[in-house]
Design brief:
With about 120 residues, the chain is α+β, with helices and mostly antiparallel strands. The chain contains four helices and four strands. It has a four-stranded antiparallel β-sheet with strand order 1-2-4-3. The chain is elongated, with a radius of gyration of 21 Å.
């Protein structure tokens, strides 16, 4: 998988870099969002926790995916500005499963009454 940066600009007001990129995946299917996020973060030499892929679409009939990402200066700013569904989407699946287990309340089984004689 190869990542090419098409456009990059810095938004000083929101303290983030806005990046448009292209991912080539010639001998495989569409790459997952987490793979693209990891590759993009390593190419730009930034922390994975500050990198959020907003959009990633594959062009029909090709081995190219085009995407948009935001790289924040501070992780706390990202948590305030990035919509919750995108935060969840950019969380690795292992973390999602752990959070779901924590949030899931333990169910109590109803007590079975013994029949009266």
């Amino acid at each position: 998988m190869d990542v090419r940066i098409d456009q990059e600009r810095y938004n000083a007001l929101l303290k983030r870099r806005e990046v448009k990129f292209t991912v080539e995946h010639p001998r495989s299917g569409t790459s997952s969002l987490n793979e693209a996020r990891t590759t993009l973060a390593s190419k730009l030499n930034v922390a994975l926790e500050k990198t959020y892929i907003i959009k990633l679409t594959t062009k029909t009939g090709t081995h190219l995916s085009v995407g948009e990402a935001e790289i924040y200066d501070d992780e706390s700013i990202a948590k305030k500005l990035v919509p919750e569904h995108i935060l969840k989407r950019n969380t690795p699946t292992r973390r999602k499963k752990e959070e779901a287990k924590k949030e899931e309340p333990k169910r109590k089984e109803p007590k079975k009454e013994e029949p009266k004689k």
